[in-house]
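JOB MANIFEST
job_type = single_chain_structure
chain_count = 1
residues = 229
[input]
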Amino acid sequence: MDPGAVKSTLSNLAFGNVLAVAARDYKKEVLANEKAQSSNHVNEEVDLDELMDDPELEKLHADRIAALKREVEKREAFKRQGHGEYREVSEGDFLGEVTRSEKVICHFYHKEFYRCKIMDKHLKTLAPRHVDTKFIKVDAENAPFFVSKLAIKTLPCVLLFSKGIAMDRLVGFQDLGTKDDFTTTRLENVLIKKGMLSKKKVEDDEDAEYQESIRRSVRTSENLDSDSD
């Protein structure tokens, strides 16, 4: 036999053996990976099951629902005091309104003044956003006694009450850039700096949806509690 042919045959056999070994190793590796993935999937399912029965997680959920309930109850209590909307009150009701709530923003206005209408627009927008503060307005023409006692000389005049005491005031648009085109956000920031409003934790355009989600969560929890009984 030709020595060259023998050498070529042996070389081919050796190469074939290498391929066979490589194929077997590759197959083992694929099987090992599949087994590992299957094992991980089972572990994940077990971990999820354990989480579902975790007493600490259940406590966190219960605490969250309780906090949501308290928030809703607090908002409802404020609304019973006239919070959450921008309302007009008479001179006779003025003292009761400013003394029954911790924080009150009161706009003394004149119905014919253009700038009073601008202030009305912004305060009406802010009232439902900041339920912990009461927003009211008083017709200055119909409240001469308090206009005199509170030394109101310029309209619009927004008085800021804390626990029944007039702590500060916005006279005209002096704190708002003196121009008519100030934004609601600018007024809001001024009132926040003066301690009359709390900083918002949610975006203004999401506030209504956020509060509704709280109510839905509370109702769902109550329904579940009722079903479990």
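[summary]
Confidence is low (pLDDT under 50) at residues 201-206.
The first helix runs from residue 3 to 52.
exit_status = 0
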